[in-house]
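Retro notes (design track)

What went well: tokenization of the new backbones is finally stable.
What didn't: we kept losing track of which sequence belonged to which structure.
Fix going forward: every design gets posted as structure first, then sequence, in one message. First example under the new rule, 145 residues:
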């Protein structure tokens, strides 16, 4: 009985793996009767993709925005900023904002929802966060307002 419990899954595994290797089309045969071998040249990873014909309806390939690009068309602000206002809770837990700026690395005892403060920090618009909102402002100092 033990050999059936071990053997049956092994047979099922062989059938599944065997089906994965089958090809829907038979291999091509060269005139000498053996299978034909073809050489595939790897594509150049640095090559530009071919452009579609002028009368093609194919969509254009997506292009990456250049560094410093922002949706408004002007460069994203950088540098030191001082803001006075009321801190609001962000969408994600542990995320706090003031005037649409995400407060990063501020002291937790001062950076809390509802606190009226003056915050000084460095703008870092390219900083990756899990907060999903606001322009990151790396906090340098926080004072009650």
């Amino acid at each position: 009985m033990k050999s059936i419990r071990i053997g049956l899954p092994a047979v099922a595994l062989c059938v599944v793996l065997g089906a994965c290797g089958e090809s829907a089309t038979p291999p091509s045969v060269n005139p000498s009767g053996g299978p034909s071998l073809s050489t595939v040249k790897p594509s150049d990873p640095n090559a530009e993709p071919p452009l579609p014909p002028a009368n093609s309806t194919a969509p254009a390939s997506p292009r990456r925005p250049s560094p410093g690009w922002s949706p408004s068309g002007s460069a994203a602000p950088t540098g030191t900023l001082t803001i006075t206002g009321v801190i609001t809770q962000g969408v994600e837990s542990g995320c706090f904002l003031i005037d649409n700026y995400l407060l990063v690395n501020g002291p937790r005892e001062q950076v809390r929802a509802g606190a009226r403060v003056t915050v000084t920090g460095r703008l870092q618009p390219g900083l990756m966060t899990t907060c999903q909102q606001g322009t990151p402002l790396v906090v340098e100092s926080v004072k009650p307002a």
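Added context from the reviewer: The CA atoms of residues 3 and 86 lie 71 Å apart.
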